[in-house]
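Field notebook, page 488. I keep forgetting to write these up properly, so this time I am using the form the group agreed on. The chain and the ligand, zinc ion, are recorded exactly as supplied. Prediction of the bound pose follows.
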Amino acid sequence: MDHNLFLYNTLSRTKEKFEPIHANLVGMYVCGPTVYSDVHLGNCRTFISFDLIFRYLRHLGYKVRYVRNITDAGHLEGDRDEGDDKFAKKAKLEQLEPMEIVQKYTIGFHDVLRLFNTLPPSIEPTATGHISEQIEMIEQIIDNGYAYETNGTVYFDVEKYVQQYDYTVLTNRKLEDMLNNTRELSGQDEKKGRLDFALWIKAKPETIMRWPAPWSVGFPGWHIECSAMSRKYLGDQFDIHGGGMDLAATHHTNEIAQSEACNHTAPAKYWMHTNMLTVNGARMSKSAGNGFLPGELFTGNHPLLNRGYSPMAVRFFMLQAHYRSTLDFSNEALDAADKGYKRLMSAMGLLDKLKVSNGADSFNLAEIRHKCYAAMDDDFNSPVLIAELFEIVRVINSIYDGKAKVSEEGLEKLKIFMKEFVEDILGLRNDQASGTDDIDDVISLVIKLRNEAKANKDFVTSDRIRDELNAIGIQLKDSKEGTLWNKI
Ligand code: AMP
Ligand code: ZN
């Protein structure tokens, strides 16, 4: 592989050259959703970002084992072992079994990700399906001296851990500050240290989801599932661990501690974190109540939305921002993305209609191709890639208008290139309602007739064609690249 892929590693806070532990193989673990409610668009942004990463690694020829878990147990409301179990609480509210909650929202999650055209991961393990692996790992951590049991609950001993290891590698925070930001222990606490966190939690009489373990009948803490499942499917050490940025400070920090305390090695070589989707500057989240559901976005059925947007336009909107930048959600930004997406798709549609000519191509595909790879090799820079693709859109439109030339061989290469970058890597497909090629052809013909009328200064006819198309929901737009159309 002659690629120089660089990716930003949260551990070193720099872009590093990507060198997998085993040549040509990549192990990637991404923290999946907690399936106790519908996924919101912020969650989707993280999974779409890792889909882009997965797709590009595969495109480069790596054999990727992509593991993305489903958290279906053990996630309490507070990140630090406080509050109710999220599933039990929701189950009570909806009068369902906790596993009915899990099933309902897992299906919903898959449906949404399918609409966004994300590829399924290679393995999608669940926390409840890996209780024995979690228990085994906790036993090893206790044996290694980094965890202790109090009244049936097992805690990770952070004070002991920091004597040997660095608990702040991911965030670069000071341990002192972390301590100061954590609630002081009271006489009632079972923990020895303020930063200690639960690996196994003893069930209360009302706890529904419970399993037998050496310490008590109970359930695993949230962080241990990812350490246990990543180890099982990817080994003690693997290449990439990812998730949203909000997970770095607690969940990922604790995952590293658990894996090191158990295996004596750091789990992942590269830690990748996606930035947040925001609404008017505030992080989109379930608890803040600003969590748009994908369905609301597609239908436009939400007070903050002027209209609905197609899943692919939304995917395009997300890919137009780099995964490490925040992305703010607004009607204007979505409108702009929708236009861009349609422009790209109409150019894709024109590819089959271009006429070839003899002689040299009027564009240098090799050069553009090189720039596209350079963008993706620079920490998966999809916005720069999209800007490069719009250069090609311009070329395609000029060829269609007869202002530029393409040879038969050049056109074949151009088609392969566009398929690779637009469909395989960016994962965009044409979801325009217009659908069939027949309609494309008919509208192209009508546009041609209108442009001829215009050229003959027969504006009555040309305006009539435009207005009548408009009346049946087809909008024409004259642009530098010729006349474009879309369904409204
Ligand atoms: P959860 O279901 O809350 O465990 O979250 C699933 C994934 O979505 C995690 O990787 C989170 O970091 C990520 N996530 C949550 N909120 C946002 C947001 N507003 N923008 C981007 N990613 C998010
Ligand atoms: Zn995780």
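OBSERVATIONS:
- The chain has three domains: 6-274, 278-425, 436-487.
- The chain has a mean pLDDT of 91.
FOLLOW-UP: compare against the apo run.
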